[in-house]
Amino acid sequence: MPKSKRNRQVTLSKTKKKGRDHKETIVNGIKEAAEKYACVYVFSFENMRNQKFKEFREQLKSSSRFFLGSNKVMQVALGRSAADEISPGLHKVSKLLRGDAGMFFTNLSKEEVERLFKEFEENDFARTGSIATEKVDLKEGPLEQFTHEMEPFLRKQGMPVRLNKGVVELVSDFVVCEEGKPLSPEAARLLRLMAIKMATFRLHLICRWSPDEFELYIDGPDESDVECS
What we know:
Radius of gyration: 25 Å
Distance between the termini: 66 Å
Helix content: 25-40%
Strand content: 15-25%
């Protein structure tokens, strides 16, 4: 009789978790970067694409360093108040680490950083749950962009299709997605199949800090609000 998989032993010592050591490594890295680089920026991101971000990071590694991860850990590294900040004014940066955010330490000029972040953009296929940027619908009739082998797959995505003399045919009008509404898994697959890209990976500057200056790039809290919050 075969052994039950439920009875298999698992060696817990082989599993790895991001625990205290990992957090301390991040904190120490941020403290070192604060001493090494001339200024630091907080940035937000939308529709993150890891490979594209990795390429951007590699492009700038000779002059800069990025940090992404737990906002709480990054805040601890900088200091959450004027009493425990590692350099004067860095607690203002700490308070702006919210949501999908990261830090960019650099020796590049302000003008160069602003140009790089403004120009950075990557279009990609939207994922499940993303908001559709336009309505996509297909009209009844032959769908010559799809081969006959795709007909079973299209039916699984909810499309009312059939084969008519080897040609995929839509038997009634079909809405793939509605503008402003979240994409279903089926809609995301169909948009990819139709080569329609609705996601844009962007980075947005939130603030800039240097020993002599603190600057906000976003509307909302002014400098006094950041100081007092």
